[in-house]
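Q: Convert this sequence to structure tokens.
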Amino acid sequence: MASPLYKSTAWNDSSQTSVLPDSEQKNKPAPFSLWLGGVAFTFVIALLGYGLSTIPGLDRVGPLACAILIAVAYRQFWGYPEMLRSGIQFSAKRLLRFAIILYGLKLNVAVVWQQGLGLLAYDAIVIVFSIALTVLIARWLKADPSLSLMLGVGTGVCGAAAIAAVSPLIQAKEEDTAIGVGIIALVGTLFAIAYTILRPFLPISAVEYGMWSGISLHEIAHVALAAAPAGQDALAMGLLAKLGRVLLLVPLCFLLMFWMKRTNCNGKRQGAAHIAFPWFLFGFLAMSLLGSYVLGKHLPVSEAFHTSVSQLTTFVLTMAMVGLGLNVNLRALRTKAAKPLIAMSITSFLLTALSYVLI
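A:
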């Protein structure tokens, strides 16, 4: 059964015929084989995305963006695979939340509290600045507000993972979520490459450069890409600063949920759906605490285990992105994504300058 957050129009397509009324078709459960086929469909395209990301040049973009590109292209040439919808939606919704929970293992709360408390102030400034400026510029440009807000959150916090976490809270369309993830991956990669080019000409130390990367770049992968060439100290500082932003994702999500509920109660969003409580954030926190205080201390695990879990998290998230990417209609993309992209790009440039001044 489709989630109430997803509004399907395919069942109302006049080209489809059935002896069942529309209401019964929507409530009719899909056979398990078709559900499994839908999940397998996202699995295969995720694999193709990984393969595409090994091509020189595209390896900078990463498997998530590559998988979304394949999914979007499939939708434009062959349409949405309606028979497999239940399994695809499972990947887009359930696996997405599962990936966010697993993502918590990447957050070492102990390290942030012990060494990064000072950086949290910078991180908080970055998040508030990114979201507020992106939303303000978007209003000035009359850009899509939901997509612009997600891009502001992705810029300020942790890219695709942040967009995936907040999208159900602000009742964003799956198409907008996929577009936002694709934009974040592209722009973040370009900025990370620009950082590596600028590094030799900057009058700052390796540690300061790592801090700059960590408090300004979009994804953890982007921080690693930019900071690693400057040495281990720069990489460690960059990741520490970035983890502080990831930690702040949790209170940000609850603030957004409170804001959305209050907005709905004030009648500003007539007909808005009920906002589901983000239980997956507690899973995110639980996995963070598990990875920070149990694994490696009271329960010895190898480095290979952490690497495997990280790879699994990325792959599951990639499968979810495939499900979201299949909802993208390129004909609406030009008018819908251009202005939010401009707003987010301006914010990213100004954030780069602000964070450089802060360090």
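The CA atoms of residues 38 and 249 lie 31 Å apart.
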